[in-house]
Amino acid sequence: MPVLEGAIIYANLIVLLSLGLTMTYITTAVPNFAQGSFAVFGSYVSLTLLRLHGLNPIYYLIGEPSGKEDFFKYIMTSIPISFVLGGVLGVLIYVLVLKPLIAKGAEVVMLMIATLAVDLILLGCLGAYAGYLGSITKKGAVKFIFTPYDINIGPTQGIFIVSILVILILLFSLFLLLYKTKFGVAMRASMENPSLAVIMGVNVEYTRIFSWFLSGGLAAVAGCLLPFRQEIVPATGSIIIVSIFAASIVGGLGTIYGALFGGYIIGISESYITYQLSTVFGPGILVYGKVISLVILVITLILAPKGLTGVRWRKIWRRSTSS
Amino acid sequence: MILTQKLNAGYKDVHVLFDINATIEPNKITAVVGPNGSGKSTFLKAIFGLASVYSGNVIFKDNDITNVPSHERTKLGIAYLPQVDNVFTNLTVNENLKIAGYTLDKKEFEVRKGIALRAFPELKDFLGRKSGTLSGGERQFLAIATALIRKAEVLMLDEPTAQLSPKFAEIIFDKIVELRDDFNLTIILVEQNITRALEISEKAYLLVSGRVAFEGKSDELRDHERFEKLCMGLV
User: Fold this and answer.
1) ipTM of the predicted structure?
2) How does DSSP assign A191-208, residue by residue?
């Protein structure tokens, strides 16, 4: 897989993950450390469907070359199923764990620790499930990768096209939801000023639950495509969470656009810069890719503590053009 | 229209209002005045369900609404305009109006939006602008317009002229009178400009340290021989 293509695929997935993280942070003030495991949950949903029903997420969007798959296999494949199940997982975590803590006035640190606990529970559950799935299918499920299932489309690989299509469709849908529907405007209103939204008659709790549904759903879709790029194990979530947080914070945790900018900056830098460094210092450096994300994170926090979307770019532009 | 019976309210452990008995009469302006920290804003918040009610009741049109969630009170016809942060600054003027009609169907919303824009024609020029870019007075217009869209029967205004220039403040006072007369609104007005609030209102409550120090006609309070001392909480 060409390096830049791989970097863009990874960035697309990080954008999906950081969008969800930022959304739930804005609506419920929860820094969700289990976001990475939400993605791995999506990976295992995808693996289950693939092993038990032979469904490949790539084929759903661009079709199997042989064209032998029947209609239902196209429709009922892992991307929509992962989205819905991931959404349900997000809602369950919020309603069963976080909402009771928020109602008791838990501070952000306590909520953060609660999500770390959730992450460990999910890790255990996914590990146990991987063992179970492996035993019933007689194929290893603790470690897996989907690259053998990828297909070539002209000079490029299917996952590259699919990841771009998925992000375009999801971002466009999200835009339509947030800007063109009454509930979406209510969500944005609740994100900015929940007290005023209540005054306007909005049931803010619904918007919070829905943001957890979206967050879980987007993460699971990312997790569904992630095995086409890297090997998945139950603990993959605790590795990619570094990139997800870096993306959200670099972009700015206060706005969902921040996740978009941060996601691409972190996703592309992490893959591409690490690769370029490996050509100079040798392949041993590849395992330290997360350091790139953390360095960008630290530099951003020093220069722009509110992230890139918190910088008054117009003011800087005016100053630079007037001087 | 609204009654509070022995209302004790505050924020968690901070008890602010003590045994407030108040009667808000329909289609009139009731001014709630008093020195800083007397509990004026908490009184509005308690009626709207945003402050904790420890004991007592809030009655709206003969129904006890003490335990009704705030967003449901909006549907009942009570609109509350906070002193600050009363519009969504990241949303456009049009989106602010849209969210104000959240509980209405599309047809009804269009009718109410027309009414609100007739009352505040100035807003027609700003529909696509982010409300964060409006001046203080224009934001206040928008905030009151959102209350009109909400099909409010009762409009509770918390210091609507705070931080406005005297010119804009005067326009807002005129608008409040217009709203009462043109839309038959029941208005509860919490205001620092006591003299103007008493001029435009029919009834007044003076709160001092969370208790009712005066209840009666606005001109009675204005003409009270110890008016200034009363307002400073010295009597």
Assistant:
1) 0.79
2) HH-HHHHHHTT--HHHHH
